[in-house]
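== Item description ==
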Amino acid sequence: MSFTTADLCDRHEAGVRVVAPGFRDYGGLPCFSGPIATVKVHEDNSQVRAALETPGDGRVLVVDGGGSLCCALVGDVLACLAHRNGWAGLLVYGCIRDSEAIACVAIGLKALGTHPRKGVKKGAGDRDLPVTFSGVTFAPGDHLYADRDGIVVASERLL
């Protein structure tokens, strides 16, 4: 599947929501897309791991970490787990770590930045609910399309 977010915006102007700039590419695949699954956490990546332990079936995990820059929610172990379980990518509204190792994993991964400290593991957080950040609401089942130019979300599959 080949696309650019610019072309999707041109073709489906009224049908896409554009995520505000600010995310950086970290995964080995800068272009990725898929149906959305969500987690909402605060400096605790337990629910991120729980989601990635399930079959991804080409989905994109959207992690609402509240924009926290205090610790990482995804590292190389979780990126590899996501790849092995068939996830297309991750969008992390927070930080990741092990960025050099993640760059070698064939998965899409965008995040706000990096942080060497890992998150706590208390099991807190919610899954499969709409989350809102960067000017967009991400609902489970919506479709996310990401490339080097940005991220767009649509309620329906565009490709």
User: Anything to note?
Assistant: The chain has one domain: 5-154. Residues 28 and 104 are 5 Å apart (CA to CA).
